[in-house]
Amino acid sequence: MKYLLALGTLLIILSCGKEKVIQLPEISHSKITEINDVSPAYLFYDETKPDSIELNRKNLISTTNWLVNVDKRLTLKQVIPHIKYLQDKKLNSSHKNKAAKNYFTCNDTSKKNLGFIEFTDVVYHQKEGLNVDSDLNHNNLLVFSLDSITIVTHDNKIFNAEKESVIITLRDSLTLSNKKDIFYCSFEKKLTFQDYITFKSELSDLNLKDVLIADDEFIFN
Length: 221
Hints:
6-stranded mixed β-sheet, about 220 residues, 2 domains
């Protein structure tokens, strides 16, 4: 299997000679730009069948770093079950390398090259609904949906944010709540993978003392 990168698009040439294309999610900049000792996996989007998804994982080696290439047009509803499957596959492998990590591959528009977002320790919870009190035990919550971004603090103060100013609003909510601790993220399953990566990239830029973004992420209806 070979692949080429051109303008944020991966052209995958499969062993059978068939070509497939993945439109990578875009980020404005990446902290991780180079990874060695890797194995790729691919989640394809079928333009003729928007609800379909195909996972190609034939070349994955459990002891290597995994680069998961996801088409940005897919939804979280489509993607997350396959991501969880890959995580379980690596975790349960008889051949393990504790130093090997998992990354999403992105197109870094500032460098016009590949960038990567790590998700090794992320634990995905798929929920029919989200109960802040029972699920999160009164911790702070970030809710990302198609129409809005909502910040709910541990003391039930609610702040609404625009996509372009989520970090600013988060800083303001922390100041007003006078509480700096762990934040849990909840994502609506209708979001595209591009939406998800955009939010993840923005949160990676968050630099507030004593604030931690939890590895547990909730995917809700």
